[in-house]
Amino acid sequence: MLSVFKNIPTHMDYKGQKLAEQIFQGIILISAVIGFVYGLIIQQFGWTVYIVLAGFAVSCLLTLPPWPMYRRNPLPWQPVAPEASGEPTPKPQDNTKRKKHK
């Protein structure tokens, strides 16, 4: 059962994150304006809240899952460098002398 969930991609590249943020903010802004105008016309603040919450739900549905449109620009990672031997490589030593504070 859990192997089904392992096949679902969970990553999103940086440009996809920017696009998702822009879509999220745009939908929230548009729903807030529509809700404000509609609530003002019918004199019901409740409808304003309902329309903004509906916009929030739609924006979450469109931006939270990692849809393929958010994964179009993957980062080119460097290949892993193979180790020559089983021993760990020594760290370079800092040759600068450190002053002791009194």
TrEMBL record:
InterPro entries registered for this protein in UniProt: Spc1/SPCS1
Chief location category: endoplasmic reticulum
Residue segments, region Disordered: 79-102
Annotated localization: Endoplasmic reticulum membrane
Keyword vocabulary terms for this entry: Endoplasmic reticulum, Membrane, Transmembrane, Transmembrane helix
The keyword Mitochondrion is annotated on this UniProt entry: no
GO BP terms in the entry: protein targeting to ER; signal peptide processing
Membrane topology: Multi-pass membrane protein
One Pfam family recorded for the sequence: SPC12
Coiled coil segments of this chain: none
Sequence intervals crossing the membrane: 23-41, 47-64
GO cellular component, one term: signal peptidase complex
Role played: Component of the signal peptidase complex (SPC) which catalyzes the cleavage of N-terminal signal sequences from nascent proteins as they are translocated into the lumen of the endoplasmic reticulum. Dispensable for SPC enzymatic activity.
Subunit structure, as described in the record: Component of the signal peptidase complex paralog A (SPC-A) composed of a catalytic subunit SEC11A and three accessory subunits SPCS1, SPCS2 and SPCS3. Component of the signal peptidase complex paralog C (SPC-C) composed of a catalytic subunit SEC11C and three accessory subunits SPCS1, SPCS2 and SPCS3. Within the complex, interacts with SPCS2 and SPCS3. The complex induces a local thinning of the ER membrane which is used to measure the length of the signal peptide (SP) h-region of protein substrates. This ensures the selectivity of the complex towards h-regions shorter than 18-20 amino acids.
Entry-linked PANTHER family: MICROSOMAL SIGNAL PEPTIDASE 12 KDA SUBUNIT (PTHR13202), SIGNAL PEPTIDASE COMPLEX SUBUNIT 1 (PTHR13202:SF0)
The family this protein is said to belong to: Belongs to the SPCS1 family.
Protein name: Signal peptidase complex subunit 1
